[in-house]
Structures are given as C-alpha cells and as structure tokens.
Amino acid sequence: MINSVEQIIAPLIAAAVALYVGENWRKTLRNKRLDECLAAVHEVMGLVNRCLSLKEDNAPREQVWLAYSEAWNSWRKFDQATAIVYRYDKTFDRNTPDRIATLLFDVKKLCNEEWKEGGAIKSQIQQERDRIKRELKQIATDVELATQKTTMLENFFKSNSPLLRNERVKMAAAFWNTVGAGIFIGSLAGAFFLPKPPFWDKVGIAAMGFVLGLACHWIGSSILKKYWID
Question: Is there a single domain that holds both residue 139 and residue 26?
C-alpha cells in the first residue's frame, strides 16, 4: 500500500519541482531584461536632460548633438531589451519604445530652434522642454512598475479597497486550511477505520495525511502573512 502511494506521489512531486524551477528561470530572465529596460530608459532620460541643458546654456552644437546621438544609442538598447521582455511577458507595453522615439524627435526639433532670451518663443520652448521631461519621467515610472514582481495571487487579490483585498486573502487562506484539515482527518479515518491495510500501512497513511495537511496549513498561513494589509 505504501509503495503504491509512493509511486503516485513521487512523480507528482518531481513534476511540481520541475515546473517550479522552470517558472523561476523564466521569471529570472524576464526580470533581468526588465532591469535592462529600466536602466536604458533612465539613461535616455539623463541624456535628453543633458542635451536640453547644453542647448539652453548655448553650448557648442557638437556637444548638443553628441548627447542627442547617445540618447538614440540608449533608445536602441531599450528597444532591444523590450522586444525580448515581450517574449516572456505579453502584458508589457510593446509601444513604449515608440513613445520615447516620438519624444526624441521632439527633442530634435527643440535643438534646431533658436533659444532667444526673453519673449514668447523662449517661453514656448521651455514649456515644450518641461513637457518632454515630464513624459519621459512618466514612461520611466511605467517601466519601473512593470519591473515589480506580480504573481497570479497578487493579481487575484488586487483591489482598490483594502477591506475587499483582505476578504479575498482570508478566503484563500481559509480554503487551504480547510483542505489541510480535510486531508488530515480523512487520512486518519482511512488509516484507522479501513480493515484491510496492515498496521504499518495505516501509520504510513496517517503520517502522509499529517504531512500534507501541515503543508496546506503552511500555504494558508503564508498567504495570510504575505498578502494581508494592516
């Protein structure tokens, strides 16, 4: 009896471990590429700020356009990293590089303008400069939010209301605790009320039920501790 139980459980455990390792590896690759995206978008933002600052300070054109070219090089890194991230995460906004490219073209227009002191033209240029910086910062924030790990449970518990979120967390924890209690009680009942299995087989069934019930209880407690909002 114990051998048959082991033959059933062992492949299931091996399959679960293989799935867990594979999913962790996929998440590691995704997070690595997301980190590259985040680094590249911040690099673009820094180079754009440098380019506009040089232009505003009337620096030589060569310095301005060098910073602008470097911003495009960083954009290419971002575009490549984004394409790879999209393979692992279809929810990632694939149009983000296009948004940044549009802003870079707007920067080019500003760099071709004559930034005369005073007057409406100078004011309009400053407003356009501030808009570009603001939108670049928003894109960087969006990418940074995408780098945060989200799990299936986190998406399930997500809610604008902390009360509703906590109710969902309690339901999930209660489910696992109930399953664990059911497994434990069922294994005890099966071990001591079934007439055919030998004594040590009954002990094995009870012990297996205790371990599985304890594992379910641990899952429920972990969900409650991790996702509960005080």
Answer: yes
Residue at which a domain ends, from 149, 172, 205: 149
pLDDT at 136: 82
How many domains is the chain built from?
2
Do 191 and 109 sit in the same domain of this protein? no
32 phi/psi in degrees, rounded to 5: -65, -45
**Residue 120: predicted pLDDT:** 46
Q: Is the pTM of this model over 0.90?
A: no
Smallest Cα–Cα separation from 82: which of 102, 103, 99? Answer: 99
- The span from the CA of 31 to the CA of 217, in Å, is 30
| Regions of the chain where pLDDT drops below 70 | 1-24, 26-27, 114-123, 145-160, 196-197, 199-200, 230
Helix axes 2-56, 61-88, angle to 10 degrees: 160
C-alpha span between 7 and 127 (Å, rounded) = 71
Distance, CA of 198 to CA of 203 (rounded, Å): 9
